[in-house]
Specification:
The protein has 697 residues and is of the alpha+beta class. Among the domains are: 6-150, Endopeptidase. Chain P, domain 1 (Glutathione S-transferase Yfyf (Class Pi), Chain A, domain 2), CATH 1.20.1050; 184-258, no CATH class. The chain contains 28 helices and nine strands. The strands form three sheets. Strands 3-4-5-9-6 form a five-stranded mixed beta sheet, with helices on both faces. A two-stranded antiparallel ribbon has the order 1-2. Strands 7-8 form a two-stranded antiparallel sheet. The longest helix is centred in the middle third of the chain and has 32 residues, at 303-334. The protein binds zinc ion (ZN). Zinc ion is lined by residues 482, 486, 512, 515.
Amino acid sequence: MSESDPQLAANPLVQMEGLPKFNLIEPDHVAPAVKHLLEQCERQISEIEQTLEPTWEGLLQPLEEMDLGWEYAWGPVCHLLSVKNTEALREAHKSVLSEIVAFGLRVSQSQAIYKGLRELRDGQGWTHLDGVQRRIVERQLRSAEHAGVGLEGEAKTRFNEIAEQLSKNSTDFSNHVLDATKAFTLDILDPQDADGWPESLKRVTSQSYNQGKAEDDPESTSERGPWRITLDLPCFIPFMQHSKRRDHREDVYRVFLTRASDGNLDNSDLITQTLSLRKERAGLLGFDTYAELSLDSKMAPDVDAVQGMFDELLAASRPYAVEDLDEVRKLAEDEGESAPLEHWDVAFWSERLREKRFDFTDDQLRPYFPLPRVTDGLFGLSQKLFGITIDIVEDEESVWHSDVRYFRVLNEKSDQIASFYLDPYSRPQDKRGGAWMGGCLSRRRVRGELRLPVVHLCCNGTPPVGDQPSLMSFREVETLFHEFGHGLQAMLTTVDYADASGTSGIEWDAVELASQFMENWCYHKPTLMGMAAHVETGDPLPEDLFKKIVAARTFRSGSNMVRQLEFGMTDMELHHHHDPDGSESAFDVRSRIAERTSVIPILPEDRFLCGFGHIFSGGYAAGYYSYKWSEVLSADAFSAFEEVGLDNDSEVERLGRKFRDTVLAIGGGQHPMDVFVEFRGRKPTTEALLRHSGLRG
Ligand code: ZN
């Protein structure tokens, strides 16, 4: 920083010590801080490129030091965009974004840095690096190579052409799906046709009607309609579950299933072209198939291993899916439905079955889960398992909103090892929806001095009303445990390099291990009962409600599992065995897989793939299996605790410490299979996931 510039010196985004000053950051600070940092980094990168030595100290360390400035200057801007969004901040963010992206590309495509990394890997210095450092170097090399840095001449030109076309295809694909989704509406005018709908569906569809109606059409109210049905999931799903008009359900279902499959919104050719280009791209990088390229940077060793998981889970779950459907069919018949059960009936009758079996609602559970009790329970569990103490810091000033709380995490010797911000409630006016854990500061060494990790835990819980605390739904409790699991991995890391500390550098099919592991504890009776007490009476959660929560966890789990497997298997088949230029179309592949999975045969006109954005416009190509892969890991890790007995305190404590010292401490510092084996003593198996899902014996 140039001391002669007092304005810059007062800019909170330019400091690099302590906590970011979220309370002081203004949109006006963004552009000058980023400009200053970019100039500085440009100079540093040029210097590194010209003088670099292929050693850790000569190459990796300066790159990592450069990253610290971004963590302080850019990290808080992105965070505030999610939790305290304003027009001015959006503008400020947008004004510098393209320069930041360009700088990132410049570094990741630098030939000099790539050459330096290779010399380091192949030279004398390699033996001086520790295991974590080697993994960081190897990962950087791999991602540079996957981005085409190693290609030359014609191959490089073609690679870049493909990259550009694929990125265009991905945008076109999702635009087509969006436009096709928007193009359909069904207006329900007769209140009888809305009989049995939940309030929330009436509200959403009445709102849609008012937004889209012509000016002189009468205004809709949520009680009297009209109601506008759309293909947006928050409308489509409850409509299929609750509309008693079977013909309406059939119409809407058929349109949904053929979205983006004809006219100028047809995605069919894009699918073929995308698959073909991906295959070619993989070939240029030396892989036989796109699936092999995808798995090269993941935990799953190869396609066979993924296929093996699919086969095991499918064999175990499909009989249950058949049973699930029989139950639904029987209920429909008992209730007087004479037509055979079709695709558009399944959600409707399943919902009736669910209501019949588990007649509890979110609102019935909420009074038992006041937020302060739930966090006490969660922190108590963390103390028991991992030996950490969590203290609130009452007067922390750096927060961005008065609801936000700041906590310190102490180890068994009462030394602080990490800290976190908890932003628990929804603020629709300026905070985005959903729940997430985000890194604020990474654990790292800066000129020999250890910096401790800081994380953000953001949820969208119901805010407190009056003097009552926030009352959480069971789903919100589970979500808090999930995000806290991610947070634990970020905070209990013992790795000192930012590129591999916490959740950085964990293969993404393993990244949900710690989070889903924590969710399991919500079904552990003493843990759940320990944090449930009625907000007014202090009464414990009634036994029958606990039983229903546990039973609802596995409701239709065979059907749900088979559905996820169908998507994952189709994705893998399309990116591995399938020849996009051969005679079998992608739709034929979809049908062939569905013959093994779907209990009701899919419709001949099924064009599900034309709307499968996860793999054609999201990041899940040859990666959809990751959902199940990480569930296998988290269930198996939890089963280690079940084996010693969840109520056997001393054993649970011992295993908790082991989980802390392996999965949570090492994180991205070692290959996730090695970390898992170190904790579990063996490789993962599907047994625990099947048992937890109620799909075993
Ligand atoms: Zn997660």
